[in-house]
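User: Predict Glycosyltransferase, MGT family's structure from this.
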Amino acid sequence: MTNKRIVLTAYGSFGDIHPYMAIALELQARGHRAVIATSELYRYKIEAEGIGFHPVRYDSAIDMQQDGEFIGVLSESRRESEYTICYLLMPHLRATYKALLEAVQGADLLVTHHLSFAGSLIAAKTGIPWVSTVLSPLLFMSAYDSQTLSTTTISSYEQALAVVANDARLRQFRWQARLWSAPIRQLRGELGLPASCDPVFEGQHSPDLVLALFSAKLAKPQPDWCPQVQVTGFPFYDRAKQENLSPELARFLDSGSPPIIFTLGSLMVWTPGNFYLEGAIAAQQLGYRAVLLVGKGVHNLPLEQLPEGVIVVDYAPHSEIFPRGAVIVHHGGVGTTGQALRSGRPMLVVPYAHDQPDNAMRLVRLGVARTLARHEYSANTLMAELKQLLFEPSYESKAAEVGKRVQQEDGVKAASDAIETYLRSQENGQSK
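Assistant:
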């Protein structure tokens, strides 16, 4: 196959950008030219890896602090997705379409993130081969994939009732969200494109190939998933190849028993609440040390109130530090979830927003984690959950088992193989 120019477009936090960087690097290693079209915020990071970059104005500038704080507030009312789509994305849809149209000039393939709504319009308008991706199982909105249906003790009749109930709930949600995609439908009409399915839901998926960029341990294909879905495994982007643990953190880890690790990723870290302080107290009362990954320039922790045996760190490569922890306490973002699964360590998930509650449910279902609601989070409740994870052997053994399975997956290779296979099919189709 001749070398191709491939444009990958993404939106969101580092957890959204990293998978596409990992795939872009692999595609370039195979001789292709990869370009990531995303916010100007990530230009330096992407270009530093030798990946092509094209700016796309998803919003005037992603303000991680402002958006993180506001999403933290909205998560209490479960309206964070509405805010992201209606107020961060749709006002800039036309500018995004124009920029992305420029990015795909001369390209052989467009690969889209689930929030890259302009991508489906460009694929329909230009006819460019198109592969869509999904980072989290929740985005398939399956009526068959729920905590109730994972229980083996219910009858087939009860399972059928659960599917009907789940389907009704999802239909109600889609009805409530029907106006979210109005700007896309309007632009679609102006472009002379025929009406299509809802672009926020099934319309986000390519009719040819959808890559589910997560482990089959997290979710397996369901009867109502798109038939063109391929589950690849997590496409890990490991900064550890360029960055190691800081000398201070390395000395801390080497000087005692494995600590409890607390992290909120790159977005929710802007709205931590009592996550770090109560976590440090709980760890100390359990007789464990703690590592607090608080983000660069983010935290306002009262350091003088932190107990002994606690280290505060801006950042550490998850692939390096997670395997050295006793338990990982995190928010359930899919990027962090993937790294934690691969580490083989038990988890406590404190979900904040978006897909995080669903990811938490799946980890509990796997037997590798427990979950604690954010509004119930305190040193006392945290201690009770951590005791189960630390002293009940089944969590550690199950986490190690699942970790080995995830380590055996190669999401980057699987995704790149699928992309190349699709490109070959396009070449063969055009040559006939």
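The chain has a mean pLDDT of 88.
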